[in-house]
Design goal:
Elements: E1 5-10, E2 19-24, H1 25-101, H2 106-110, H3 130-160, H4 163-167, E3 178-181, E4 184-187, E5 194-197, E6 200-203, E7 209-211, E8 216-224, E9 228-235, E10 240-250, E11 257-258, E12 263-267, E13 277-284, E14 287-289
Antiparallel strand pairs: 1-2, 3-6, 4-5, 6-13, 7-12, 8-9, 8-11, 9-10, 10-12, 10-13, 13-14
Helix pairs in contact: 1-3
């Protein structure tokens, strides 16, 4: 059987030679197959392109959401840190109020609570995600806040019934300045030996006022070699005694009654002192106490 052909005659509009293209049926089938393959490939490419375009857009959207969520989590973490810091401040005041109220001793408060452990003294824990850690921190802060709230309610009831005693309990700083030396054991600045410091040293400008830290009665105004010009005040309604050393001038006399905030004298550096400051002591029944627990405005 003779081969069948298909002829395509091309006639130009302008003057020119006519052209004839001849294709066999076999060639047409091959071209048709190639065209079909190319068409299918084009369709697949277009489908894949638009799918990838959609995925890229979805990826960009998810990335933006992730970035926003991370920023939100960072803000939450910062808020948790700030809340925890505020709770710690309340906890500090709560401790001071408990000591002043006599509900707890400063020795008990200064002992850090022990940490529980696992079997044989070893604690076994699994790694936690940041999200879970933050949730645990919030839960701990909430429990701490509840405990402080309950304790403050108890303290409120206590102090409402103890107004006279409260007025006679030391609760403010005797002068404004910075703490140059705390209560407790230290190296003596003059001898270098390890000695016990029975009060706190508050360094400030010479001539600044020194005030009574609670209502009381001036027991004495005397000058000695160590403390220089010294004022001792009794607070009969609470049993406390406060002492103020290294003053440059007295503003009160023995036997005079004073209120919290009244000026007792002026800051100086009399006695054994390297610079102007106030050495301040708090005593109860002869026992020297840490004044830090009796300064609420610091």
């Amino acid at each position: 059987m003779a081969n069948k052909y298909l002829s395509l005659i091309i006639i130009p509009h302008h003057k020119g030679k006519r052209r004839t293209l001849t294709f066999s049926h076999k060639s047409i089938k091959i071209l048709g197959g190639i065209s079909a393959v190319l068409f299918i490939a084009l369709v697949v490419f277009l489908v894949d392109y638009f799918m990838m375009r959609g995925l890229r857009q979805e990826f960009k959207t998810l990335s933006a959401v992730k970035t926003e969520q991370e920023a939100t989590l960072n803000r939450y973490e910062k808020s948790i840190d700030e809340l925890n810091a505020k709770i710690d401040v309340f906890e500090s005041y709560r401790q001071k109020l408990n000591v002043m109220a006599g509900l707890k001793s400063q020795e008990v408060i200064e002992i850090e609570p022990g940490l529980g452990g696992g079997e044989n003294g070893q604690e076994v824990s699994l790694p936690e995600s940041n999200h879970q850690i933050n949730l645990n921190r919030l839960e701990d802060i909430n429990k701490k806040a509840d405990g402080i709230a309950n304790n403050l309610n108890t303290l409120t009831n206590f102090y409402e019934n103890q107004m006279l005693e409260l007025a006679a309990t030391p609760s403010i700083s005797p002068t404004k300045g910075y703490w140059a030396s705390p209560f407790g054991w230290r190296d003596d600045p003059f001898t270098g030996k390890r000695t016990f410091h029975p009060g706190v040293d508050i360094a400030t400008h010479n001539g600044n006022p020194v005030v009574a830290t609670a209502d009381g009665l001036v027991l004495s105004t005397q000058t000695d070699r160590i403390g220089g010009k010294t004022i001792k005040i009794s607070h009969p309604n609470s049993g406390y005694v406060t002492i103020y050393c290294h003053l440059s001038k007295y503003m009160v006399k023995p036997g005079q009654r004073v209120k919290r905030g009244d000026t007792l004298g002026l800051v100086g550096k009399t006695g054994r002192a390297r610079g102007p400051h106030v050495h301040y002591e708090v005593r109860l029944n002869g026992k020297r106490l840490n004044p830090w627990y009796y300064i609420l405005d610091n």
